Amino acid sequence: MDTLHHTENGAALAANQVGILKRLIVIDYCNYYYKLINPKIVGSSGVQECIEGCLSFPNHFVKTIRPQKVTVQALNENGEEILISGEGEMAKCFCHEIEHLNGEIFLDKAIEEVDLNDTTTVFL
User: What is this structure's pTM?
Assistant: First the structure.
């Protein structure tokens, strides 16, 4: 969590991104840290187009297609089983970080490269 807190523009982090071989993700969303152990997506619905980056690939952005809503089953930091749902940006974060734990990266989901310096690109 300290690594995420001290990282510029970081919204989430999987433990294996910083050399910790545990199935743990941390998501900083609206100034609340979600700490999930052994998370897995157990439901999803809808579709959204996203612009995505990653702390492991600085200054690299792609367009992806993600579920609009996901439900995640995990243990919280007290070892209690929880179900948590997220929509939009939160759904994207859940998918992205859980994929890290499964050995996947956002580039695997890329449908198009994005140049954030291109002033003709419009982001909605």
Answer: 0.86
Nearest to 36 by CA among 101, 103, 89: 101
What CATH number should be reported for the domain holding residue 28? Answer: 3.90.45.10
Q: Name the pairing type of β-strands 12-14 and 57-66.
A: unpaired
Residue length, the chain? 124
Is 97 annotated in the active site?
yes
Domains held by the chain: number: 1
Top pLDDT among 5 and 106 is at 106
Cα 14 from chain centroid (whole Å): 8
Decide if 121 is inside a domain. no
Q: Please report, as a single letter, which amino acid is at residue 82.
A: I
Q: Tokens 């998918």, residue? A: 95
Q: Is 56 helix (H, G, I), strand (E, B) or coil?
A: coil
Name the active-site residue from 49, 87, 97, 112. 97
- Would you place residue 123 in the very low, low, confident or very high pLDDT band (cuts 50, 70, 90)? very low
